[in-house]
Design brief:
about 280 residues; alpha/beta; five-stranded mixed β-sheet; about 45% helix; globular
Length: about 280
């Protein structure tokens, strides 16, 4: 059996294929971004999923694509932990941009961007992924991402910059204190996921003029920092992967038009397209 895993900072989608390349099972675990989760938690989190544990000796290959896996040291750490659960598997760990490139591929070269909990970009010519810009994480990077939008919302709430209607609705929904926010951002694991979670509030009110402006500004940051520096962006189609791109697609396309950029496909969850790519080109 073969496992294909798309792991973000919030959750991981697992698809298990049988010997005939048919989908045997789909399941989820939390995200395993090694920059935000203790490596020691990976094994126990996988073992919480009883369906995966039942298959631990039957899986012979694992293709794992993860956020935070652009660094060799992190890829090695992830592979080592996964091997503890799946002792018979050959494990290949690559960064999430590879999964995005494969999932968004439609037979011609294109730019591929991730807009989920975090953000990233690359150019894929059908064979090679070109990455010109580093991923700087949620503290000083991840423009346009869920964590960036959530950070803006929380900041503006505490600094009393939100319009009164949004301020009161946020207060009623979350009862968030400064102490709680600081504890989650500085003393607990996965602070980027904590911030990204507040997108539910924004997405449910995305037609509010204030949020249209706030999200548009974040999308402008994304295009300015992560897309425009690619010379290829002026002519190539730009495809997007991730929940934030999906939720705010109309705003995303409007801002792209300001930069005279061509947005192609927007895919919320790449796992199904990623599996199709593996069946067609890799397995």
């Amino acid at each position: 059996m073969v496992a294909i895993v798309d792991s973000g900072s919030t959750k991981s989608d697992w698809v298990i294929l049988d010997e005939f390349k048919n989908i045997f099972m789909k399941t989820e675990t939390i995200g395993f971004n090694p920059n935000f989760i203790s490596i020691d938690l990976i094994v126990p989190e996988i073992e919480k999923n009883h369906s995966l544990v039942l298959l631990k000796n039957s899986i012979t290959k694992i293709y794992f694509y993860g956020s935070g896996c652009g660094v060799e040291k992190n890829r090695e750490r992830i592979a080592k932990e996964i091997r503890h659960v799946f002792p018979n598997a050959k494990i290949m760990v690559k960064e999430d941009l590879m999964a995005a490139a494969y999932a968004a591929y439609r037979g011609k070269p294109a730019m591929v961007c991730i807009l989920g909990t975090g953000s990233n970009s690359c150019y894929f010519d059908g064979e090679e992924v070109t990455i010109k810009l580093p991923s700087l994480g949620f503290l000083i990077g991840d423009e346009g991402s869920g964590s960036a939008i959530g950070k803006q919302l929380v900041r503006r709430y505490f600094m009393q910059k939100l319009p009164s209607d949004l301020h009161h609705e946020f207060e009623e929904n979350y009862q968030l204190t400064v102490d709680d926010a600081l504890q989650n951002m500085y003393h607990k694991t996965r602070p980027n996921a904590f911030l990204a979670d507040f997108n539910r509030f924004v997405a449910e009110r995305k037609n509010h003029p204030y949020f249209i402006q706030m999200v548009s500004d974040e999308m402008r940051n994304f295009f300015e920092y992560q897309v425009v520096p690619y010379q290829e962006s002026q002519n190539a189609e730009i495809n997007f992967i991730g929940s934030i791109a999906y939720y705010y697609e109309d705003i995303l396309r409007n801002v792209a038009s300001e930069f005279h950029l061509n947005v192609g496909h927007v895919v919320q969850k790449p796992i199904e397209s990623l599996v199709d790519y593996h069946i067609k080109y890799i397995l």
